[in-house]
Backbone:
């Protein structure tokens, strides 16, 4: 029973080594300009939808407060 963690960690190390070798070969064939472009587009789309979500949440909170007669936003 004492050797069990050692066997598991050895198997994990060899498995991770094989995975990293396979990923290294795959990553070397990528065009990093295209990868950066795709990641930038995905981050832009994610930012848009995150902003949309929080703007709607804020609007609902303001409308709920207004229906109760409370003021959230102060005018100048």
Residues:
């Amino acid at each position: 029973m004492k050797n069990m963690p050692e066997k598991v960690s050895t198997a994990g190390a060899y498995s991770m080594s094989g995975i990293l070798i396979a990923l290294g070969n795959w990553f070397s064939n990528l065009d990093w300009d295209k990868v950066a472009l795709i990641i930038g587009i995905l981050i832009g789309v994610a930012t848009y939808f995150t902003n949309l979500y929080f703007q709607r949440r804020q609007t609902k909170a303001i409308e709920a407060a207004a229906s109760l007669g409370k003021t959230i936003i102060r005018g100048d």
Remarks:
- The radius of gyration is 26 Å.
